[in-house]
Amino acid sequence: xxxxxxxxxxxxxxxxxxxxxxxxxxxxxxxxxxxxxxxxxxxxxxxxxxxxxxxxxxxxxxxxxxxxxxxxxxxxxxxxxxxxxxxx
Amino acid sequence: xxxxxxxxxxxxxxxxxxxxxxxxxxxxxxxxxxxxxxxxxxxxxxxxxxxxxxxxxxxxxxxxxxxxxxxxxxxxxxxxxxxxxxxxxxxxxxxxxxxxxxxxxxxxxxxxxxxxxxxxxxxxxxxxxxxxxxxxxxxxxxxxxxxxxxxxxxxxxxxxxxxxxxxxxxxxxxxxxxxxxxxxxxxxxxxxxxxxxxxxxxxxxxxxxxxxxxxxxxxxxxxxxxxxxxxxxxxxxxxxxxxxxxxxxxxxxxxxxxxxxxxxxxxxxxxxxxxxxxxxxxxxxxxxxxxxxxxxxxxxxxxxxxxxxxxxxxxxxxxxxxxxxxxxxxxxxxxxxxxxxxxxxxxxxxxxxxxxxxxxxxxxxxxxxxxxxxxxxxxxxxxxxxxxxxxxxxxxxxxxxxxxxxxxxxxxxxxxxxxxxxxxxxxxxxxxxxxxxxxxxxxxxxxxxxxxxxxxxxxxxxxxxxxxxxxxxxxxxxxxxxxxxxxxxxxxxxxxxxxxxxxxxxxxxxxxxxxxxxxxxxxxxxxxxxxxxxxxxxxxxxxxxxxxxxxxxxxxxxxxxxxxxxxxxxxxxxxxxxxxxx
Lengths: 88, 582
Fold this sequence. Notes:
The complex is a heterodimer. By secondary structure, chain A is mostly helical. In chain A, 76% of the residues lie in helices and 0% in strands. Chain A has one domain. The radius of gyration of chain A is 34 Å and the shape is rod-shaped. The longest helix of chain B has 27 residues, at 21-47. The radius of gyration of chain B is 39 Å and the shape is elongated.
């Protein structure tokens, strides 16, 4: 009888320690998850800003201005164009 | 050595004998005490536990808001046209804020504000005042680093439009609270809008979240919307329209480009325009999305419909001769005139030379109901259902109220009104094989097979051939030619109605399609009150059509369907015409 009691006490103590340990583990992992989620949101914001920046730099107004003024480009006339026949 | 133990029994004091009531009193007192403790414990644990639990939780549990961003708007290729990015708003509790004059000056410098204005705001008698809304996060950080009492910041979103003036009417804009107020932003507001979520968490003493208790509301991110718009074609249409506005000193104008295979809107621009990123001085005229909200009497642009009806009925053929006489025709006390006498014309020439009398003669061979039916089938008088705010449906009166003179004027586009987008939609019947499909602003991958059939394929092919003559020598719109492609279209020049009278102000328009051999695009142009000497649709709207169509066909890599030689002839003709104008 006494032996069973001692065994049960040992099991209960071990389980209690296990609960504490896993709780600690869970909190640590949760903090990590939290940090990564914050980072994800931060990166999403940054991505949006970069997309906006890309759209601004790639604006057709700007490209046409640079092509015409700085690079001195122009549209080819009809006589300078050659249509390549063939199946797509 | 044996110790003598002390036994109370032998205590002489006890031996004396205590009174019986004393131990009983002590026992009773002890019992009462423990009963009180049990009662208190039961009260705290059983009766009052909810209140205490909540109080305890509030020491460590927090409800935090999870922000949701508004969806992005992109064009058909995924280029971002509108996106939200976080900014900060600086606010203050005037009662708590007691900055020194030097601090105020520094703060005003950071926020780019007037010192007096800032002082005025800080002196206000309220608990909350915005100092400046929507400042960049870097500036907000500098303000926070000043560590001023009573000055706080708050996270908000600001919408940016990289396309600026080019996309303004199409996209519209959002208010300071991130809700759509115009254009696509308003039309698709419910989809674009995100719903912020919230959840309950447990924080430790350092403020770090250690446990997720429950999610109260999951955040819903706003959906991204891919429009049918092609940013390149939109830009082409924008530049062509802006140039024309300067050249013809017009009051306003619009250009619409449709993909005739899918009914998608590829471009929609209006002038005058505005920059949605900077909306400080806006007038009503700048804000108008004319292509869908403003209706006008389209004039001759409707004539191909009458011609197609005439062919469809079998009463007329491509080469049936109609006598337009000396250019004047009297009908029920009213006189219908042509710009000049044309004499005897074939049906094709009526369209090519845009003869009002020819169109009236064809129209009068139909009952009003028949004409109404075709106009209605083509969508005149019915809304586009694009979802734009203030979308106009135009006016098409029921056939039973038409007097003969009204039926006659409706044949050449007076007495009926439509928006430019609606006119472009009617031309879908000519660009496709006689059916009309709904126009759409969002990208649709599959070409729509058939819509509502209005004309037969044969009729449409013949009508398209007549409309092609409009841009050829002898037609009203030689400036509408596009090098390398066969184009078909129709000009319109209509007097503006002011009050009950027609004025000598004009609306010049041109609606056309290309390539004729296998139509792909419809371009519709409208110029309101060109102020120069030129006001005819062919002269004013034709060149814009040509520019936009040429650019759009090239952008979409549509193979040319016109041989090179006539193309050079066409070019030189155009140059001669251009020199003649100078």
